[in-house]
Amino acid sequence: MPTPALFAIAEIVLVAAFVELASLFEQAGVAVPRTASGTVACAMCAAIAWPGLRLEPVLIGGVLLLSIIALAAGPGPATIPRFGAGLVPALYLGLPLGSLVAVHRSFGRDAVLLLVATIVVSDTLQYYSGRLVGRHLLASSISPKKTIEGAVGGLVGGVTAITVAGEWWMPTASVLTLALVGGVLVAAGIAGDLFESLIKRSAGAKDSSRLIPGHGGVLDRIDALLFAAP
Description:
Layout: H1 3-27, H2 34-49, H3 55-73, H4 79-107, H5 109-133, E1 137-139, E2 143-147, H6 148-169, H7 175-203, H8 218-228
Antiparallel strand pairs: 1-2
Helix pairs in contact: 1-2, 1-4, 1-7, 2-3, 2-4, 3-4, 4-5, 4-8, 5-6, 5-7, 6-7, 7-8
């Protein structure tokens, strides 16, 4: 897949995930200036994805735009949360999805496939390890189903996957390098999963949406990648 095509897909996924994230914020009592916040998030994705585009103007422009909106709304208890929530999508969605495209641009398709495969294998083994031998909760107040045993199973599976697959997809990388990168990716993915669970728990929601029957929303499918891709 050419990099421009992946960028187009990333922006579509970003918009879908942004709608879900904004809805979760609103369920938690924090209104998001959707048009402005979504535009800044898409611009952030583009700035990270493409060489030659500057990140600083996006950040400065986003802060100024959301500041103007806050000024127009006037003072009140919702002003600060609304301003902060407006910036979150650029960092939480735009930066990582842009990073995924940047990985493709800088290191090629195989690096992206290796990244995604590592997270998918890790997620799968976390689920089955947790179901089979999970006894100790990893973060009981955030995720009632994620266990320490599941996390260990996901770590072993993810590191094994990237080490084995890396022999074909990134043959110039040493086994030690692949294993270390795999460990970092899995740990980041688990953190991303927990962070999205934290947002949903704060909003009183089980899934980010019902877009995918039985699997929740777009945000539920990409939560681990959002922390792993950068």
